[in-house]
């Protein structure tokens, strides 16, 4: 077997990234994503591309946030593993998949090849997620009218609410943050992400019962790819009333009032209550995502 050549691309050879087949439809899924050529890497064997990865970050980020496009040619799992293992920056890996991929033998085999490469590179499964996309033809859900929504300029109010929400969360990323650094880290990571988003801070809302109790929060957002349901959370003492649906409806309608013509969203497959809310509110599952995280991380840059 010939030696592998791993190449970080530039504007002059960025075309090499497009040399592999795309059985999982990543190109269509990323049609709104902007990748930097020098954050793309490929593996060559005898001059042919056998694996590729695209690292992604916001337009002003000095280093990538994650890898959200990763492919290997048939039988080239070891090459894909080497691409991941040799990367100077170890970050979370997102493998985006068509909905229903488990039921299609061809799609399932392609997905499993990427999973095998990721595990061989030292990545561990974190979570599987549903990806949603609301469009106007789905209709706007009616407001239940049970909660009162207010803008809240004080980040400490949201920080406290996030700590309470994440104390009983089903979200795998939040649970990982709690395990690493406690509830403060989990809450701060959420705040940092939404401050990073280009959407206005004054979109954030607290939700209150008619008696004035804080029931939860919702954060409409606009990430670099478009409008999205940023965060929906009900505080523990008000769970069991279906308030997550109320928050989702308000978040959706807020984004539409701000001009959104489509809205993306995501939730963990294991978060059955939230998945049910998305279904009820008219958000269809359009793709799925499997998130892996590196067992060990470095601080080097690409």
TrEMBL record:
Coiled coil location: none
Residues covered by the N-acetyltransferase domain: 163-302
A Pfam family it matches: Acetyltransf_1
The name this protein goes by in its record: N-acetyltransferase
Species name: Streptomyces variabilis
């Amino acid at each position: 077997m010939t030696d592998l050549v791993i190449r970080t691309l530039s504007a002059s050879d960025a075309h090499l990234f497009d040399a592999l087949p795309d059985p999982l439809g990543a190109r269509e899924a990323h049609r709104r994503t902007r990748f930097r050529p020098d954050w793309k890497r490929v593996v060559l064997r005898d001059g042919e591309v056998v694996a590729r990865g695209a690292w992604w970050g916001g337009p002003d980020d000095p280093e990538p946030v994650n890898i959200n496009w990763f492919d290997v040619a048939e039988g080239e799992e070891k090459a894909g593993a080497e691409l991941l293992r040799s990367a100077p920056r170890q970050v979370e890996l997102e493998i985006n998949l068509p909905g229903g991929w488990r039921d299609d033998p061809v799609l399932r085999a392609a997905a499993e090849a990427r999973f095998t490469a990721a595990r061989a590179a030292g990545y561990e499964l974190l979570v599987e997620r549903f990806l949603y996309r609301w469009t106007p033809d789905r209709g706007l859900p009616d407001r239940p009218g049970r909660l009162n929504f207010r803008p809240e300029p004080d980040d400490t109010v949201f920080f406290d609410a996030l700590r309470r929400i994440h104390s009983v969360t089903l979200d795998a990323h939040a649970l990982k943050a709690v395990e690493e650094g406690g509830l403060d880290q989990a809450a701060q990571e959420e705040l940092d992400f939404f401050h990073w988003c280009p959407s206005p801070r004054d979109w954030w809302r607290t939700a209150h019962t008619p008696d004035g109790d804080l029931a939860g929060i919702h954060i409409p957002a606009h990430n670099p790819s478009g409008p999205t349901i940023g965060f929906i959370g009900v505080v523990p003492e008000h769970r069991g009333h279906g308030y997550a649906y109320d928050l989702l409806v308000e978040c959706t309608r807020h984004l539409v009032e701000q001009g959104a013509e489509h809205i993306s969203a995501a939730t963990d497959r294991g978060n059955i209550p939230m998945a049910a809310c998305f279904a009820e509110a008219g958000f269809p599952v359009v793709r799925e995502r499997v998130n892996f995280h590196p067992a060990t991380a470095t601080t080097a840059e690409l």
